[in-house]
Amino acid sequence: MNTPFIQCVQAENKIIWFWSDDFFKKQNANLCRWLDDCFRMATTLFELQLITTRLRNDKTRGYMINVFCSFVIRFLRKNVFDPLDELYKMEGKNLLTLQKCCMDLHAKFLKPLFRIANQIEKEDIIGGEFINFLFDQKALHENRFLTSILDDIISLSIERYYQIIVEWVSSCTLALDVGHEFFIWDLRKQNVVDRSSFDVTGKLDWSDFDNYFILIPQLIPVDFLPVKDQIFKFGKYLYTMRQQNAGLTLLSFHYSLEASVFKNLSLGKFCDKINELFEKCSTNTLEHFKQKYDIINFAKKLPSFFIGLNTNWIYELGELFEKNNFTNIDIEKLTSNKLNGLLTQAFRYAQLDTTMHYKYFELNISPFTKIKSEGITPKKGTFPALELNIAQNNHVLKLAFPAKILEPYRRVFFLLFVINRARYLVHMKFYLRENFNNPWAVQECATIYLFNRLINVYQEYICGIAAKEYNNFVKKLEKVKNLDELVQVQLEYIHIFMENAKLDQEYLPIRQLIEGIANQFCLYACNELTFFELNKSVSPFVGKLKTFSFNKSKSGGIKKSFVW
């Protein structure tokens, strides 16, 4: 209340204390100095109460922030208001005692709590980000009362996290996560709160699941970081099996999970428990894929499909493209039906259609190529980038063959397609004597021989490396116990293959130069270049190829391909 000497004015979200009588202030300098400390405490207390009120009224902030506000209010009642009431009731009130009490309350409790609450509001801190923030704040303060309240808030917040995790791993739903506090978001509830500043990860491999659920790195409590991927994939695997109508035998494991599984566990033991349960979940998912897709045998066949191991079906594909004159039509006319019709034919000619696995693939024009070449007919002899992918109607298989496995395979496939298409076109020009330039016959024969030698040795080198590692790869596949082991074994194989075949990022120039040489020979074979123009255009590629390969001390056997 205002008095004749002291006035209090509320302005927006703060209050201002001032002396209304300057003469009284001059006459009572000590009193004013003592009461200034009381005013400072009262201002902080008032603003802290305003912040907690706003935070509690903001329903988008979720359960954990509400818990924080409740604890702060309870703490103020017990440790601030009660001492002030006791001081007020004292007989023979002492201004020095009042000043000391206000200074202690302000320094020990109110100022730190105000800073914490103010930062939560200004930086829009929620969920796991809030838990991490409280851990950081706890480390900054030695006041046992303050650290005690932070401990209590952290414990309740983590308990809430446990409840949400149980719901997630048992049903792949997030009904308890009303305010998007969990580090996995259900985008179907996006209208509840807008947190557009967060980084989003997870939308990589499987569109169905990723259209609904995303992972927000900032919301992961630091102690949960070791198991964040397991928790995320827990839901993804369950979602997959439910969508695929997996048997109740496999799903009952999830449905039987209860909150008691994690009760009274330390964070370390909680992570151990998550790993234990996830291994079972991954095992069940692999079993489902075995039953529905014969997934182990499919994984064994991937090198045959993408690299042409034990078969040269990619040459058949290049031949079919030319026989059907697909090189010289608009990109937009290369429809999925046309591309996949040729793909099926190539598989059939190479006898890769003996099992159902060939049906799991589709052939596409690279989306980037469509953008770059929109409305343009490709130059005769050139061809846009092709991608061999898991078919869209079997995209669930990308759980077993994620982008980090398929992307290297796709790069190798397109490289082999380019050089095999060049082989076919040169064969048609030279050996069938179509438009053969007789005056340059000897030189042309020598050049074409060297080109064929280059790509034959290079392709044999690639396939030889793939075959060398293949038997060990198959043995490991037969021993996998869960879906994650299946992915890991494939990653090891593709990593060793790409490194030993000199197809990794370090040797990217070699791949690009060979593609460039092959494309020049395609133009020559399609009569877009004369033999003289071919020699002129290929010479820089050959020079760079020799320089790069011989400068690499670890090039090994691949050097044999480049001795022209």
TrEMBL record:
A cellular component annotation (GO) from this entry: microtubule
The entry's keywords: Cytoplasm, Cytoskeleton, Microtubule
The keyword Chloroplast appears for this protein: no
Keyword Nuclease among record annotations: no
Gamma tubulin complex component C-terminal domain mapped to chain residues: 330-524
Listed Pfam families: GCP_C_terminal (PF04130), GCP_N_terminal (PF17681)
Superkingdom classification of source: Eukaryota
InterPro entries: GCP_C (IPR040457), GCP_C_sf (IPR042241), GCP_N (IPR041470)
Domain Gamma tubulin complex component protein N-terminal: 57-292
Family statement: Belongs to the TUBGCP family.
Name of the protein in its database record: Uncharacterized protein
Organism of origin: Meloidogyne enterolobii (Root-knot nematode worm)
